Amino acid sequence: MAILKIARMGHPVLITKAAPVDDPSAPEIRRLIADMIETMEDAPGVGLAAPQVHVPLRLFVFRVPPGRGSDEAEDAPRGPSVLINPEVEPLGEEIRVRWEGCLSIPGMRGAVPRPWRVRYRGLDAEGAPVERIAAGFHAGVVQHEYDHLEGILYPMRMSDFRLFGFNEEFARAAEPQP
Ligand code: NI
């Protein structure tokens, strides 16, 4: 396994729409997934999409830390999870604003409005179908990672740039409320 170099905002791979994975069980895909999980855990981060490691394919890894799941999302996966060729569909009308960060925009965070509940589908690392309903943090991380496959970074989803800045600066003052 290897720790991969992470592209930062400004690199064209991050604003490129990624291509579907033809064969989820191909050895190079298995190796990529293992390396992405190692890279995410080393960073550390809660999600990493293939375009962030300069591979424009539709897959990402993520995790929902203990205590960050939602009561509405009983099926939040434990440990690192993989989603290949995913689809994400909002459930209901509710939009909430939550803080997000991104390994491609290090040291910063921003408040992003997103659907609170989603249904997502895709394939796992074995190529088996996955379908889950998610809310809160779990739904947010999946939508954030899915956006990477579309070439969208979280600042492109923001509506109030006063709530975008460096973590160190926010930590000095009372935290602004999204
Ligand atoms: Ni990101």
Defining traits:
single chain; 178 residues; alpha+beta; Peptide Deformylase; five-stranded antiparallel β-sheet; three-stranded antiparallel β-sheet; globular; binds nickel (II) ion
- Classified in CATH, the superfamily is Peptide deformylase
Share of residues in strands: 25-35%
The portion of residues assigned to helices is 10-25%
Global mean pLDDT: 93
> How many strands in all?
8
Task: Tally the helices.
Answer: 3
* Subunit arrangement of the protein: single chain
The hetero molecules present are: nickel (II) ion
The CATH class name reads Alpha Beta
SSE order, one letter for each helix or strand: HEEEEEEEHEH
Tell me what the CATH architecture is.
Alpha-Beta Complex
**Whole-angstrom Rg:** 16 Å
What can you see in these coordinates?
The protein is α+β, with helices and mostly antiparallel strands and 178 residues long. It has one domain: Peptide deformylase (Peptide Deformylase, Alpha-Beta Complex), CATH 3.90.45. Helices cover 20% and strands 27% of the residues. It is built from three helices and eight strands; from the N terminus they run H-E-E-E-E-E-E-E-H-E-H. Strands 1-2-3-6-7 form a five-stranded antiparallel beta sheet. A three-stranded antiparallel beta sheet has the order 4-5-8. Strand 4 (95-100) and strand 5 form a beta hairpin. The longest helix has 16 residues, at 27-42. The protein is globular. The relative contact order is 0.19. The model has no long low-confidence stretch (mean pLDDT 93). Bound molecules: nickel (II) ion. Nickel (II) ion binds at residues 102-104, 144, 148.
